[in-house]
Amino acid sequence: MSAPARARAASFPPALFGFLKDLAAHNDRAWFAENKHRYERDVKAPLLAFIADFDEHLVKISRHFTADPRPQGGSMFRIYRDTRFSHDKRPYKTHAAAQFRHGVGRDAHAPCFYLHLESGEVFMGAGIWHPDGATLKRIRDAIAEHPKKWRQARDKTVGAGRLYMDGELLQRPPRGYDPDHPEIGDLKRKDFLVVADYTQKDACRADFIERFAGDCRAAGPFMKFLTEAAGFPY
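The structure assignment produced for this chain is given below.
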């Protein structure tokens, strides 16, 4: 007789946002030490469960992206900030996040699907944030050489109106590209991202994982173009 299926945690508790709001108001090591049990119970545990549950959805979107529920080195971002080179010495992030990276990616700059959870701000992101110079050039070259294919991928993704493009832009056209190119607006992008926004109530609904997966799936044409332009399989 097979083992019973594990109960699926398909949503986040309101306490997750309560903890993150309190952390924003008390961002110091002493407070965190006193409340670490809340972080473990209300933030870390449900986020790791969500990551594990998302794997069955992600494999249907693309088998080249991973949902890794390990507490260290997996899809979940650490709550601890790296303050070594920052003037902002607050020790903790005030959001929880997960990144579902491409299998070839080793850092935050690889193609990925992303979930951001913060008091007052919840969103899905898909694409490539701050790609390295070589990857950025490959993406821009693909857009410049195949503008119709790029427009189809972009417009199919954002045309329905729910997902929208986001990220930093150059003020001037990048060197080596025709300033009169019909897609010069996108060639000026430093990030290639699409985003879908949610409310905290959305994130606490039982069907949130399906809604998140649906938006990741809707980003598929955009992600396929970017991932293949970067030289990876989608």
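Interim note for the steering committee: Helices lie at 14-25, 29-61, 133-145, 147-158, 184-187, 200-204, 208-218, 220-229. The CA atoms of residues 224 and 234 lie 6 Å apart.
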